[in-house]
Amino acid sequence: MLGQNQYGKAECRVVKVSREGATHHLKDLNVSVALSGDMTDVHREGSNANVLPTDTVNNTVFAFAQERGIASAEQFGIHLARHFVTSQEAITRARVRIEEYAWQRIETSDDASRFVGADAVRHSFVRAGQEVRTAQVSYDGRGWEVISGLSGLTVLNSTNSEFWGYAKDRYTTLKEAYDRVLATDVHARWRYRWASDGEPVPRWDTAYERTRTHLLQAFAETYSLSLQQTLFQMGARVIDNRQEVDEIRLSLPNKHHFLVDLEPFGLTNASADGAVYYAADRPYGLIEATVLREGATQAIPTDLTSP
Amino acid sequence: MLGQNQYGKAECRVVKVSREGATHHLKDLNVSVALSGDMTDVHREGSNANVLPTDTVNNTVFAFAQERGIASAEQFGIHLARHFVTSQEAITRARVRIEEYAWQRIETSDDASRFVGADAVRHSFVRAGQEVRTAQVSYDGRGWEVISGLSGLTVLNSTNSEFWGYAKDRYTTLKEAYDRVLATDVHARWRYRWASDGEPVPRWDTAYERTRTHLLQAFAETYSLSLQQTLFQMGARVIDNRQEVDEIRLSLPNKHHFLVDLEPFGLTNASADGAVYYAADRPYGLIEATVLREGATQAIPTDLTSP
Amino acid sequence: MLGQNQYGKAECRVVKVSREGATHHLKDLNVSVALSGDMTDVHREGSNANVLPTDTVNNTVFAFAQERGIASAEQFGIHLARHFVTSQEAITRARVRIEEYAWQRIETSDDASRFVGADAVRHSFVRAGQEVRTAQVSYDGRGWEVISGLSGLTVLNSTNSEFWGYAKDRYTTLKEAYDRVLATDVHARWRYRWASDGEPVPRWDTAYERTRTHLLQAFAETYSLSLQQTLFQMGARVIDNRQEVDEIRLSLPNKHHFLVDLEPFGLTNASADGAVYYAADRPYGLIEATVLREGATQAIPTDLTSP
Amino acid sequence: MLGQNQYGKAECRVVKVSREGATHHLKDLNVSVALSGDMTDVHREGSNANVLPTDTVNNTVFAFAQERGIASAEQFGIHLARHFVTSQEAITRARVRIEEYAWQRIETSDDASRFVGADAVRHSFVRAGQEVRTAQVSYDGRGWEVISGLSGLTVLNSTNSEFWGYAKDRYTTLKEAYDRVLATDVHARWRYRWASDGEPVPRWDTAYERTRTHLLQAFAETYSLSLQQTLFQMGARVIDNRQEVDEIRLSLPNKHHFLVDLEPFGLTNASADGAVYYAADRPYGLIEATVLREGATQAIPTDLTSP
Question: Is C257 noted as a catalytic residue in this protein?
Answer without folding.
Answer: no
